[in-house]
Amino acid sequence: MAMPLNEKSDIPQTHGSGTQALVLGAGIAGLFTARILAEYYDQVCVVERDTLPEEPENRPGTPPSD
User: What does pTM read for this prediction?
Assistant: First the structure.
């Protein structure tokens, strides 16, 4: 269920609150989510089943855009 735009979330609004966040998947959505959560949490851990490449390349299970 989506949260109405006028409702406050449970995300802490201050840095240094001693909290941690976990993101499952390092696809574009997971990495973007981790980036945003890093503004609110002291530590963000991203868990990915595949090894991330050193250089940009197509990833298994992620179709390239046309």
Answer: 0.59
DSSP annotation of 56 reads -
Tokens for 37? 């959560």
Determine the Cα–Cα distance for residues 38 and 26; give it in Å rounded to an integer: 14
DSSP lists the bridge partners of residue 46 as: 23
Q: How far is CA 33 from CA 38, 42, 66, in A?
A: 9, 14, 24
The pLDDT score that the predictor gives to residue 31 is 93
Q: How many CA atoms are closer than 13 Å to the CA of 42, on its beta-carbon side?
A: 5
Instruction: Provide the pLDDT for residue 53.
Output: 81
Where do the structural domains in the chain lie, given as residue ranges? 19-51
Q: Which residue has the tokens 């802490």?
A: 12
